[in-house]
Amino acid sequence: MLDHKKKFELLSYVLLFAAILAMPLFMDDFWLNRIAKYLVYGMLGVAISLSWGYAGILNLGQGLFFGAGAYMLAMSLKLASPTSLNQGADKPVPDFMLWNAEPGAVTDLCCINSGSFLWIPFQSQWFGVAMGLVVPVLLALGLGYAMFAQRISGVFVSIITLATVLLVRLLVIDAQPITNGFNGLTDLGWFTVGGFEFDPYLVQTYYLVAVSLIIVLLLTHWLVNTRAGLILQALRDDANRTSFLGFNIALYQTFFFAVSAGIAGFAGMLYVIAAEFASPTFMDLTFSISMVVWAAVGGRNSLIGACIGAVLINVIAASVSETETFVEAWKAILGFLFVGVVLFMPRGLAGFTGDLVDRLARNGKAKQDLAPGDNAEKA
Amino acid sequence: MTVALLIDGVGVDFGGFKAVDGFSMSIDEGELMVLLGANGAGKTTLMDLISGKTKATEGHIYIDETEITNWAPHRIVQQGLGRKFQIPSVFRELSLRQNMEVAATVHPAVLRNLGSRLPADRVRRIDEVLELVGLDTRQNELAGNLSHGETQWLELGMLIVQNPKIILLDEPTAGMTQAETLKTSRIINDLKGRHTLLVVEHDMSFVREIAHHITVMHLGKFLASGTIAEIETNEDVRRAYLGSGGIK
Prior knowledge:
The complex is a heterodimer. Chain A is mainly alpha-helical.
């Protein structure tokens, strides 16, 4: 039984990777850029599946970590944009800071406003990249340990994460002098590695996202198959029993919560590279809820299922919502789709196809078992 | 003989109601002690206090020489305690073997478990114990598919591979048929000597199979202690049990 399941899993990974890597053969630049963004959403699906499906932590504020990653890299790329460099290459200042500067203020990051010094280290792009991982992970470690050490679980975790993302969203909007508030960070420079500029509409940029997704999928797949991953699933099953086997469950939950946050932060950075902006909408409630819907439709207990769910829904959304008949109806369709999946396929597409493979394998086996009998009759 | 588990004047106050009240006892290393008492005598609460599930409001508990009073459960386990719950609790969505693998983990820390294999001696031990509890042929099935009795044995098996110094068993034969009870008493007799055991049990025929010593609790307090014969003839115990028809 286990055998054909493993084979099917392997096959689906190979097919997905092949499809992702072959995409540039069939798509123009415009669609390729779109697909890159959807692959980023696929990565968010993986993050949700890891925390919700494997750790049993329904995080309704995953946008917090996505947003944190996005803003960190966007700050670096903002400083690298031509408009910011107008002041001279050695002292870039973001345009929105100049517009809002008090008369006579020094046009330098050190002191153009009271918070602008925070931007100074972001002149290094790699500092931005590092922070894009470090900040979400640290946030998750703090928030996670605060919750899990108190044995907070289930719906209360969802409420706390949801409240946190909304709170941070408000703070970001409110800190207009250093975040550009509602408008977010736009007019960004390109992500640059060794002199190569990742123009979002280049096929190389697509591959940067695609390969990143493949690596994330492989790493998370490895992680849930380690002994720690097994213990995590035990914990989701029966936290009490796990703790009475000597495991500090708060540390396990915090660890996987932080890994999930790190993946979301990474996704946020890739999104900034592909979409060329960061905005408080990343921390909107609807976005965080959407991620959960993608994972639920794809199958939260399957990393690859949640990933495919996210990509698929967004591809469908993009094509359908641009058809005139469906522009208005699309949101309702998505809602019905979610309700339908929850009612009829509680384990999502992945669970559904898994069952299908099971049934086919069983039928195949039944036929094999029958075959010798047929021969005997003939003899 | 050295004392493995020492309970010294332990009690818990649930807002005025003392479920366990100044209770003391000690168990020697390798001994099997049965804890007897009517419903509501505080037996399960005492186990909760020992294993850290409930915080004591008075008294002290020691494993060997180390005081473990009110530690977090996982730390008490790391100190050498294992517990089987009254309602069997296993990981229902994992296979039997995976259940055992979780229990057989050597180091509990996250980062120590980023490999996928157990040491060879642990793997061998899992095989042995699965055979001991008679579940070796079903190790790839999901634990959720087991019958009630089999679930109890799986949980016992998990305790055995976990290899704690002290094992607490809360009604290990609850809901079992006679044949299943017999098999369970064989498993438990096999543990005697290698582990220190504290067993809560009502079924006297089962108690006769396994016990050296019995301690009786009544209304949260220590009532009597002794061999089976002594307890069966003890006047205090008879009086305490009159309402529930005496010991059968």
